Predict the 3D structure of the following.
Amino acid sequence: MRSLAHAKLRRIRALVWKETHQVLRDPSSIAIGVILPLILILLFGYGLSLDVKNVPIAVVVEQPTAEAMELVASLQLSPYFKPRLLRVMAPAQELLLAHAVDGIVRIPADFSRHVGAGDAQVQLIVHGGDANRARIIQGYVQGALGAWSARQAAQGQQAAVVPVSVQTRLWFNEADNSSYFLVPGLVVLVMTLIGGLLTAMVMAREWERGTLEALLVTPVRSDEILLGKTLPYFLLALIGFSLCVLSARFLFHVPLRGALWVLLSASTLYVLVALGIGLLISSWVKNQLVASQLTMLVTFMPAFMLSGFLFDLRSTPIVVQAISYALPARYYVALLQTVFLAGDVWSVIVPNTLALAAMAAALALGSRLAMRKTLE
Amino acid sequence: MLDSLLRILALTRKELLAVLKDKRSRLSLLIPPVVQALIFGYAATYDLNHVTYAALDQDHSAASRQLLAAVDGSGVFERVADLQRTSDIATYIDARRALLVLQINQDFERQLLSGRGADLQVIADGRNSNTAGTAIGYVGSVVEQFNAAWGGDHGWTPPPVQLVTRAWYNPNLETRWFMIPGMIGTLTLIQTMMLTAMSVAREREQGTFDQLLVTPFRPYEIMAGKALPSMLVGTIQATGVLLVAQLWFRIPFAGSYLTLYAGLMLFLLAAVGIGLLLSSVAATMQQAMLYSMLLIMPFSLLSGLTTPLSSMPEWLQYLTAINPLRYAIDITRRVYLEGTGLDLLLPDLWPLGLLAALTLSGASWMFRHRMQ
């Protein structure tokens, strides 16, 4: 019994050794496993941002009265806008049409008179194309308007008290910095793709070349092959992951509020899942071309769109939510956003980790079955 | 001239056969864009229609109940709990059981009735700060309506200035209108570029490329024969997504199809050109695959589809100048939603044309170079 286990271990070690050699000799897997994640996290970490700053807007002041100019000053002081002063509407509309400005704030000619009467209006025309941005701009204009009324009130003009005012506190991200949630999400995106690609390309290549069949006729068992093949890539993916986390922490200054070991164990599980997806795909299609296209299709875009990394899943139809539950990325996004920003919240960590563990087990089983089936 | 055209057509036919004769690969080219458009069309929206919140009403007054009823009645919010203590807030937010907690302090009604104005505290789960910000905005508009109603009933002077907002081209500010037209280019890019890069790399790996080179085909004819089928596939995929946008999501099409397809053709030409250039550099299929993925991912994420280009650091904005998808997304969105004509689209069209010209001539130079 002991010698049997020993032999098994030896076979696995030999396979790992052989595979490690292959990895070291073939720069493409190191490129995928280590360099690609680093490049992607840098590009996307800098490139993806939902923060709105220096929005070009046109401010149409039809009558430059004191009140109107104070409002303009309030817009100019706001860090969110780069206002362009105009006297009439027509050129402003042309600017909006040409996408040279994102919105028009129109202060009508009778503004001051109506401020005195207490029923003044300021018109805001936004470019509705990018609705998210339009909404943010609207909020900022409202804010500038609020600052203006407060100043007017302080100068003894009409009091600007409203019955209920909203006081907001944004937990976990007081500064409202979008890279706090985008960067952990990007780690998910990158690791999903890397894990899947590594195994999908490698195994499919072996199938194509027939070397896997050759391996199958040796005393090595199929689960040993899987283990031996996966281990080196697993380590490679972990290196890539560590680079991502290091850049998240030190380059993009995302706080890590949870424990490091929680982050590491959850990520280890996820890397296994991602590798498993690649294994399953490649033992199913056995063709490098199709395998990598399929991996791209089932990992990259779904992890981008359906993981809750960017878009709130609670607002999608039930069918889409159901699909998202089948995607490992969803659980990992919840884990990472919590461990990075909120800390060790066990009520989030435990169920999501369990889901990932179940998926890893199912994928391991699935690839073993797929492998065994081909033996017949 | 005619001979050349016939040769290109023959090669195109052969390429199309190679791609389409197998049922699985036929389906793998036609189904994914449509299915993705359907699923992502629902998923990719910043709008919220289901915001979970917990209420912490420490006032228990008619006014506080009226305010919370207004929140419940807006149709967007779902109250998941009525909290008793401030210590409960963390429990609900941390565990993601509520996106927001609305806290109303003890003297809420008293302050309202005394005319001093009261506060509504909103605590939001900032783990996705964009979602949180949108939800807070929704609370703001509910409160605004409440203020108007309460102020009218209790004789408050209305705020001296009101902001009246109008959104052009998308009156209800639905992000779906913005996302789905942008997907027309995004969903076609992946397979169009890969198909081209792979088709040459495969021939090279199998040695049939050398055979092709000894035929009477000129290098540019081979290139055209490789480019046309991919463009055709891309056009069909784009049409599929366009149909989903119009027939399924019912997003009104404001522009002209001619303009849209003209833009798409230029985009596909540039995408195919990049694919050909990659395949002329790559020695094996695996390398071609790797190179195209290396480009496709940044192309699709840094395209302005989900996050605006203007929020990027300046150096990266310059870098996106080589991203054909960036222009395609701008074109499809503007033609689709605004009915923009070709003249206003020129800033997008000429870079695409330049990209296509550069990549195609680069690829053709590489092919010729390899021949000698």
